[in-house]
Amino acid sequence: MSAIISISNLSKTYKPTKKGGAGFQALKNVSLDISKGEILALLGPNGAGKTTLISIVCGIVNPSEGTVTADGHDIVKDYRAARSLIGLVPQELTTDAFETVWNTVSFSRGLFGYPPKPAHIEKVLKDLSLWDKKDNKIMTLSGGMKRRVMIAKALSHEPQILFLDEPTAGVDVALRRDMWNVVRRLRDSGVTIILTTHYIEEAQEMADRIGVINKGELVLVEQKAVLMKKLGKKQLSLELAEPLKKLPKELKGLDLSDSGLILTYTFDANAERTGIATLLKQLGDLGIAYKDLHTSQSSLEDIFVSLVKAA
Questions:
Q1: Where in the chain is the domain with CATH 3.40.50.300?
Q2: N- to C-terminal Cα distance for the chain?
């Protein structure tokens, strides 16, 4: 699938606040292609460079080095054409509190030089469950509804690319899931979506690919399913019939709980031989009985934490 966004050797260094001080390098040689119609989730701790990366692609911050193109348009040399393709939902709720929902969203469309299109604005508001609020002033809306208005503003000019910077921050669980459905429908209509999030389950639920950024560097970008297979481990937990005082030497490499009742065995589920059959035979030979067992797989959160620690 062709790339709608191409980022090549992108770096950003902010000037020092004091004379003679060292500048802060927020991004370091980031290269990334984003395919048309995919959902890419960018994960990273606070200060990792996620918002800086989005801000550069959206033309808000100038890069120190490197290039970015949106559907072939350079975001610096051909700013207007590139920016018209992009919708941005920032972290901060920046809306005109005294305007109505309808006027706010319609005005955003006009900022991009597009003629009025009431039918499109109506569709966007209905898709975001805002139609019954169209005449309400922004100041009267809840935080979750204001977040939806921000998405509506970003969609007002019918962008091909949508950036969502922490789109569900401060939103309750029910509303978050509603917004996930909205994002899926947008993707199904052909919109390319890049989201940053602190909610690991959001990335695991929504994304086609996962990117992990830390200390300004792109640690990895991988298909979600492939990432889970490559880095996600499975664990077999056995609840013993009788507690063990210590782990027999024959079972070296396993973990024994403090209570002596749980044995934990970590294995690669994709390996040709998992070693489970051998383990169960060893337990039988040692006379160790178990009354229950279950398996669990590493979550995306486990993988993310391990990657950030290693970086």
A1: 3-229
A2: 30
Which residues does 111 contact at the CB level (< 8 Å), separation at least 6?
A: 157
Query: What fold, for 3-229?
Result: Rossmann fold (3.40.50)
3-state secondary structure of 116: coil
Q: Where are any strands of DSSP class E within the chain?
A: 3-14, 24-35, 39-43, 65-70, 73-74, 86-89, 161-165, 192-196, 209-214, 217-223, 234-240, 255-256, 262-267, 290-297
DSSP letters of 12-63?
A: EEEPPSSTTPPPEEEEEEEEEEEETT-EEEEE--TTSSHHHHHHHHTTSS--
Task: Pick the closest to residue 193 from 40, 69, 86 (CA basis).
Answer: 40
Nearest Cα residue to 191 out of 224, 134, 151: 151
Beta bridge partners of 65: 11
- At 71-130, the pLDDT tens digits run 999 999 999 999 999 999 887 766 677 899 999 999 999 988 899 999 999 999 998 889
CATH 3.30.70 intervals, the chain: 233-299
CATH no. of 233-299: 3.30.70
Taking 70 as the threshold, does the pLDDT of residue 232 lie above it? Answer: no
Give the separation between CA 269 and CA 267, rounded to whole angstroms. 6
Of 81, 74, 5, give the one whose Cα is nearest residue 40. Answer: 5
pTM: 0.75
What pLDDT, on the 0 to 100 scale, is given for residue 209? 93
Q: Which two tokens stand for residue 199?
A: 């909610």
Torsion from C-alpha of 117, 118, 120, 123, nearest 10 degrees: 180
Radius of gyration, alpha carbons of the chain: 25
Q: Which tokens belong to 207?
A: 């994304």
Q: For residue 135, what are its two tokens?
A: 């005449």
